[in-house]
Amino acid sequence: MENPIETKKISAFLTRISKKWPSKIDRFEFKTATVVYVYLKDGISSLDFSEKLAQVIDQLVDFKIPLLLYHIESDGSNLRSQPVNWYSPIR
């Protein structure tokens, strides 16, 4: 069962990353509620984008459910996954 509050937070997270990198992200496509394809603009490396996002992801994420992002280069040649919230914090 989906949590509507968490779903809204995921959409807000995607909006934040698209505003942070408007020259890098072409569009998003939800495959499921927790699997999102991130289509990158022409010439943007999925590896470089993944590394940049990893540096600030803790500041951008405010939801608790696991999310799997797939960064797809414009030519479709590279697909890189980036899990978000897949591991529980150490208490």
Explain what this protein looks like in three dimensions.
The chain contains 2 helices and 4 strands. It is an alpha+beta fold and 91 residues long. It has one domain. It has a 4-stranded mixed β-sheet with strand order 1-2-3-4, covered by helices on one side. The longest helix has 17 residues. The chain is globular, with a radius of gyration of 13 Å. The model has no long low-confidence stretch (mean pLDDT 90).
Q: Brief description of this entry?
A:
The chain has 91 residues and is an alpha+beta fold.
Outline the fold blueprint.
Elements: H1 4-20, E1 25-32, E2 35-40, H2 46-60, E3 67-72, E4 79-84
Average pLDDT taken over every residue = 90
What pattern of helices and strands is seen along the backbone?
HEEHEE
Shape: globular
Question: Helical amount among residues, as a percent range?
Answer: 25-40%
Taken as a percent bin, the fraction of beta residues is 25-35%
CA(first)-CA(last) distance: 27 Å
Features:
single chain; 91 residues; alpha+beta; four-stranded mixed beta sheet; globular
